[in-house]
Amino acid sequence: MNGQFDLYGVFVPSLMAWMLAAFLLSVLLRRVLNAVGLYRFVWHRPLFDLALYVLLLGAVVATANGFSL
Q1: Cα distance between residue 62 and residue 15, in whole Å
Q2: Which of 7, 13, 8 is nearest to 61 (CA)?
Q3: In this predicted structure, what is the pLDDT of residue 6?
Q4: Given a cut of 80, is residue 55 above it in pLDDT?
Q5: Do 30 and 52 meet the contact criterion of CB atoms below 8 Å apart?
Q6: Domain boundaries in the chain?
Q7: CA distance 18 to 24
Q8: Which residues pair with 4 in a beta bridge?
């Protein structure tokens, strides 16, 4: 696996792309959680959102490493 990819001549770290994907998933999931009303059971919303982002980032990285054989 290469640690970076070429974007029009600029080498971008793969982690940055994974972080962007995890952020977009996090935004989508936060909207769903807010619409369903599950945030009323959360004590500290920003801390919960950070933990959710870290879990999603780990899942995205693990999934990306699984596909790059």
Answers
A1: 12
A2: 13
A3: 80
A4: yes
A5: yes
A6: 4-67
A7: 10
A8: 13
